[in-house]
Design brief:
Blueprint lengths: L5 H6 L20 H5 L9 H6 L3 H21 L3
């Protein structure tokens, strides 16, 4: 298999990459270890995202809901 030389790699144009993007001082794999440890990214539906302006408000709501669930499960006889 033929390796692409540097000029071929730089002339390839990804339609999603704008010409003004400059990664010349970027560090490859800088966050790879952190990413490999796992992420908990959740995509909110637009109508839900309108109610929660930031991550902290989402976390507060989920903590409150979790507490309600804990209290309800204590009331249920085994």
């Amino acid at each position: 298999m033929k390796k692409a030389n540097k000029t071929e790699a730089t002339t390839h144009h990804d339609p999603d990459m704008l010409d003004e993007y400059d990664f010349s001082s970027g560090v490859r794999g800088k966050y790879a270890r952190r990413y490999a440890e796992g992420t908990n990214v959740v995509l909110l539906s637009p109508d839900v995202a309108e109610v929660f302006p930031d991550a902290e408000s989402v976390n507060q709501a989920l903590r409150a809901l979790a507490e309600i669930i804990r209290q309800q499960s204590k009331k249920v006889p085994a």
